[in-house]
Amino acid sequence: MNLLVTPNTDKKGIYESTTKLCKALHEHGAKIYMLNSDSELFKGCCDISGGNINELTRKSDAVIALGGDGTILRSATIAAVYDKPILGLNQGRLGFMAGLEISELDLISRLFTKEYEIQKRMMLDVSVRHNGKCKYRNISLNDVVLSRGAMSHIIDFKIMHNSDACLEYRADGIIFSTPTGSTAYSLSAGGPVVDPSVKSIILTPVCPHSLCNRSVIFSSDSYLDVEPNITFDNELYLTIDGDGVFRMEKEYTIHIKRSKINAKFIIIKQNSFSRVFTEKMLH
Q: pLDDT tens digit string along 66-95?
């Protein structure tokens, strides 16, 4: 089995965790892929290295990401593009996306005995258009965030649902999240927690200038169009999964729908979503 290992080298204790993981993988006959920079840091762990993460992902059978949710999120998005499953090992704080904790490395043997399930997570397809032309396009596993600049004024947003006028907000921003992303920025902004098995798109306003501060949950087959009113005295930025910032211009519109691509998470340890949520958030 060819496995791409992607550790977050900024995490405390990552050297010990990565070397321990690689030793366990080698004992089961795995061939380990790593980026050149990681291979140099973790001497003796890597069998094949390269400088292009996309190429390494394409050649691998699966991806193992060590770190927090951010690390797993970035690796999972790339893995999804190449239809590769991912196993997240939590070396961070919450680790909602992690399949195992670092302390549970003894369970990694189930990866080779095929004692696991693949859980598909929906993603979002987002595009920015102007005069019928696409200016930007990306996919999101967590959330699509529209937020004003630090010095700009509050922004008016018009939301269309399946081409019908639906909602209007005056707010600092809007968050569109998947169920996977419902426990991230959307939750901090007052949005609902949604079980990943419930396919839906969650809209949550950020600091709306209104007495109504409610989120809206749309079905996963919805098409959502956002028309922000950008003027000379405000700025608006589009951010995908906390990265990939794109500055919006006047008369640009944003189109959001369910992506045809799914992220595939390797589930070795069977835990219900409610149990994971309780363990991660309430303790």
A: 998 889 999 999 999 999 999 999 886 666
> How many Å from the N-terminal Cα to the C-terminal Cα in the chain?
37
The tokens for 9 are 């080298």
What's the pLDDT at 269? 82
Q: Is 69 a catalytic residue?
A: yes
Q: Please say whether the beta carbons of 92 and 101 come within 8 A.
A: no
Tokens 């290295």 sit on residue: 49
Q: Max CA-CA distance within the chain?
A: 61
pTM over 0.70: yes
Contact between 68 and 90 under an 8 Å Cβ cutoff? The reply is yes
Q: Is 209 helix (H, G, I), strand (E, B) or coil?
A: coil
List Cα–Cα distances, 92 to 21, 54, 260, 270, in angstroms: 16, 24, 30, 20
Pairing of strands 200-206, 173-177: antiparallel
Contact 176, 190 (CB under 8 A): no
Q: Helices (DSSP H) in 60-103: which residue ranges? A: 69-81
Residue 114 is classified by DSSP as T
Q: Which of 10, 38, 47, 69 is catalytic?
A: 69
Q: Which residues of the chain have pLDDT under 70?
A: 92-95, 271-283
List the one residue out of 213, 190, 191, 216 whose CA is nearest residue 201. 216
Contacting residues for 38 by C-beta, under 8 A, at least 6 apart: 5, 6, 7, 9, 46, 49
Cα–Cα dist 226/99, whole Å: 35
Rounded to whole angstroms, the Cα distance separating 270 from 283 reads 20
